[in-house]
Design a protein that fits this description.
Elements: E1 2-9, E2 13-16, H1 17-24, H2 28-35, E3 39-42, H3 49-61, E4 73-77, H4 88-96, E5 103-106, H5 112-125, E6 131-139, E7 157-165, E8 174-183, E9 194-197, E10 202-205, H6 208-229, E11 239-242, H7 247-257, H8 268-271, H9 278-286, E12 295-302, E13 306-314
Parallel strand pairs: 4-5, 4-6, 11-12
Antiparallel strand pairs: 1-7, 1-8, 2-3, 6-7, 8-13, 9-10, 12-13
Helix pairs in contact: 3-4, 6-7
Length: 315
């Protein structure tokens, strides 16, 4: 299958580290040293998870290389839903006015992008769809507590629309060579290392060290696994698009893999942790510098310890 088009929406409000210095005493130097984040984007009062995704969709439709009416599958991914019944995917169906197609929304925390892509892969394999829309968005700031000195300063908001086709549509499509997803929910402190319980404690990170260690381990492992499975080596990788959780995690994983840091695509520094949208935003931001035959590994790890990798070849 092929990624034929991609578009993202980034809210306009910028929240710098000085904001947290003023409200909870965390210095710019402290935040930078531990996360790599200098600023993040925050959704406006009238924005939510659905609108973040729909604004990305609207931008994508402007230059979509096929009629929007051809979309016959919509898959949404988020762990910060605006509505758990009329979901992100249903909101997109309503926006597009396309009837009688499969509409699915999922959450595997920050891994949701790749699980959404894998659902598309399955529908394509069963000949139940041929052109899909994948929407990933997270409105993290709706749930995060800015006074929380452990994790309140990490979060940003964003949304992405990814248009996927079973067959190649244009010369510079990106071919999805393989996807591997898995879960390690029985490992370490996966149950409550980081969680979002809207009716309880809210958004918390209780075991940052355990999350960090497992993220580094599983992201490196699954990247190696997908390359080996497809007869590639680390040296074949042109770019590495990791989950945008923490610049220290990205550097650690790149070091484990033996990858130069310049091959790692990163927006954590100026967008914060945008959840399951982070990797796709990185692909969108860098799309103009990708060249034919570039090989990209999109690698994710989420709270609950879901993880995965997608191998993409630029045509």
């Amino acid at each position: 299958m092929y990624i034929t088009h991609i578009a993202s929406y980034i809210p306009s409000q910028i929240v710098g580290n000085e904001h947290f210095s003023q409200i909870n005493g965390l210095s710019d130097e402290w935040i930078l040293a531990r996360t790599g984040i200098s600023e993040r984007r925050k959704a406006a009062q009238d924005e939510n998870t659905n609108t973040l995704a729909l604004k990305a969709l609207e931008a994508g439709l402007e230059t979509l290389p096929f009629p929007a009416s051809d979309i016959d599958l919509i898959v949404g991914g988020t762990y910060t839903p605006y509505d758990t019944i009329h979901t992100l995917a249903h909101a997109a169906q309503n926006y597009l006015k396309i009837s009688d197609i499969p509409v699915v929304s999922i959450s595997t925390a920050c891994s949701s992008f790749l699980n959404a892509m894998e659902i598309v892969q399955g529908y394509f394999a069963m000949n139940k769809a041929s052109k899909a829309l994948v929407l990933v968005a997270d409105h993290n700031t709706a749930y995060s507590d800015e006074l929380d000195t452990v994790g309140g300063h990490l979060w940003g908001d964003a949304g992405t629309a990814i248009f996927v086709s079973k067959e190649r549509i244009k010369d510079n499509d990106w071919q999805v060579l393989d996807i591997i997803t898995a879960g390690a929910g029985n490992v370490g402190k996966a149950v409550d290392g980081v969680f979002l319980r809207p009716n309880g404690e809210g958004f918390k990170m209780n075991a940052g060290k355990d999350v960090f260690m497992n993220a580094c381990q599983y992201m490196a492992k699954v990247t190696q696994d997908i390359l080996q499975k497809n007869n590639f080596t680390i040296e074949d990788l042109s770019y590495f698009a990791p989950h945008q959780a923490n610049w220290r995690i990205t550097k650690n994983v790149a070091e484990k893999l033996g990858l130069p840091e310049e091959k790692a695509l990163s927006n954590i520094q100026y967008l914060g942790n945008t959840g399951c949208a982070g990797c796709s935003v990185a692909l969108w931001e860098n799309k103009d510098k990708f060249r034919p035959n570039d090989l990209i590994s999109v690698t994710v790890f989420g709270g609950g310890y879901s993880y995965g990798a997608m191998l993409v070849r630029c045509l």
